[in-house]
Amino acid sequence: MWNRIRWISVTAAAVLAPLVAGCTLGGAAAGGVIGNEATNHSAVGTVGGAVAGGIIGHELGK
């Protein structure tokens, strides 16, 4: 139950963050959260997710 709620909130953050903030910053924040949750709170996963999210957000903002 709690895992489902957590994943729903992470997904909502990933979808809404680029709309609320700048695309690059919002994408990096959402990607970092998703990377952190997907890799069981690994620092490498967090940084990797933030980098990927920032790149995606930057491309969407063009």
Which descriptors apply to this entry?
62 residues, mainly alpha, 0% strand, flat
What does this structure look like?
- InterPro entries: Gly_zipper_2TM_dom.
- It holds the Pfam family Rick_17kDa_Anti.
- The chain is mostly helical.
- It has one domain.
- Helix content is 85%, strand content 0%.
- It contains three helices and no strands.
- Helix 1 packs antiparallel against helix 2 and helix 2 packs antiparallel against helix 3.
- The N and C termini lie far apart (38 Å).
- The model has no long low-confidence stretch (mean pLDDT 80).
Question: Could you provide a short overview of the structure?
Answer:
InterPro entries: Gly_zipper_2TM_dom. The protein is built from three helices and no strands.
Total domains, how many? 1
Amount of helix: over 70%
Q: Count the strands?
A: 0
Largest sheet: none
Rg from Cα:
11 Å
Helix/strand/pairing class, anyone? mainly alpha
Task: Give the count of helical stretches.
Answer: 3
Query: Which geometry do the CA atoms define?
Result: flat
Mean pLDDT: 80
State the distance separating the first and last CA atoms: 38 Å
The run of helices and strands is HHH
Uncertain runs are none
Beta fraction of the residues?
A: under 5%
Give the SSE map.
Elements: H1 2-20, H2 23-38, H3 43-60
Keywords: Lipoprotein, Signal
Organism: Paraburkholderia megapolitana
Signal peptide: 1-29
